[in-house]
């Protein structure tokens, strides 16, 4: 998003501008949280917590042009923290799955289930790259990794997905 009304010389983003930026980005933030928890209420709770953290820490954002990277990092970390705190088994429902796609849409169901089985950073790099269409350099900033480490995680995660999807094939 364009940070209209923000000059590079300003110290930080004010709360009013932060609210506008979050309003524009709220659906994307919800979608990321939902990928992790697969529950509407939990995803909304995560977004609410992440927005609260953003308001508390907005002064720490040194370069406002990296707002999307910064807020994405907060939502990913909030999602992971939520899962750890709740020590939940993530349920992939029969009626509604990832992104609200029902089980009748089998074209991508195996892929979503395979991504869901990935753990930690492997899952996160796939979600950010292929579901959120972020660039490697942005993923590296969010995860505080080098670009080469992100590429290594992505390569390994894609190999894990290939193995999972191949094992699921019916050989007749």
TrEMBL record:
<feature type="domain" description="RNA polymerase sigma-70 region 2">
    <location>
        <begin position="26"/>
        <end position="88"/>
    </location>
</feature>
<keyword id="KW-0731">Sigma factor</keyword>
<feature type="domain" description="RNA polymerase sigma factor 70 region 4 type 2">
    <location>
        <begin position="110"/>
        <end position="160"/>
    </location>
</feature>
<dbReference type="Pfam" id="PF08281">
    <property type="entry name" value="Sigma70_r4_2"/>
</dbReference>
<dbReference type="InterPro" id="IPR013324">
    <property type="entry name" value="RNA_pol_sigma_r3/r4-like"/>
</dbReference>
<keyword id="KW-0804">Transcription</keyword>
<dbReference type="InterPro" id="IPR036388">
    <property type="entry name" value="WH-like_DNA-bd_sf"/>
</dbReference>
<dbReference type="Pfam" id="PF04542">
    <property type="entry name" value="Sigma70_r2"/>
</dbReference>
<dbReference type="InterPro" id="IPR013325">
    <property type="entry name" value="RNA_pol_sigma_r2"/>
</dbReference>
<protein>
    <submittedName>
        <fullName>RNA polymerase sigma-70 factor (ECF subfamily)</fullName>
    </submittedName>
</protein>
<dbReference type="InterPro" id="IPR014284">
    <property type="entry name" value="RNA_pol_sigma-70_dom"/>
</dbReference>
<keyword id="KW-0805">Transcription regulation</keyword>
<dbReference type="InterPro" id="IPR007627">
    <property type="entry name" value="RNA_pol_sigma70_r2"/>
</dbReference>
<dbReference type="InterPro" id="IPR039425">
    <property type="entry name" value="RNA_pol_sigma-70-like"/>
</dbReference>
<comment type="similarity">
    <text>Belongs to the sigma-70 factor family. ECF subfamily.</text>
</comment>
<dbReference type="InterPro" id="IPR013249">
    <property type="entry name" value="RNA_pol_sigma70_r4_t2"/>
</dbReference>
């Amino acid at each position: 998003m364009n940070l209209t009304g923000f000059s590079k010389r300003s110290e930080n983003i004010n709360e009013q501008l932060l609210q506008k930026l979050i309003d524009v980005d709220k659906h994307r933030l919800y979608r990321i949280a939902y990928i992790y928890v697969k529950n509407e209420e939990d995803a909304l709770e995560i977004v609410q917590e992440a927005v609260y953290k953003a308001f508390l820490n907005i002064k720490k954002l040194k370069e406002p042009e990296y707002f999307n990277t910064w807020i994405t990092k907060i939502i990913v970390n909030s999602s992971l923290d939520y899962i750890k705190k709740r020590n939940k088994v993530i349920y992939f429902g029969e009626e509604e799955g990832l992104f609200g796609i029902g089980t009748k849409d089998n074209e991508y169901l195996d892929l979503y289930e395979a991504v869901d089985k990935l753990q930690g950073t492997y899952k996160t790099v796939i979600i950010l790259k292929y579901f959120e269409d972020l660039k490697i350099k942005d993923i590296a900033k969010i995860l505080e990794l080098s670009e080469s480490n992100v590429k290594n995680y992505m390569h390994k995660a894609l190999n894990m997905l290939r193995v999972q999807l191949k094992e699921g094939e019916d050989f007749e």
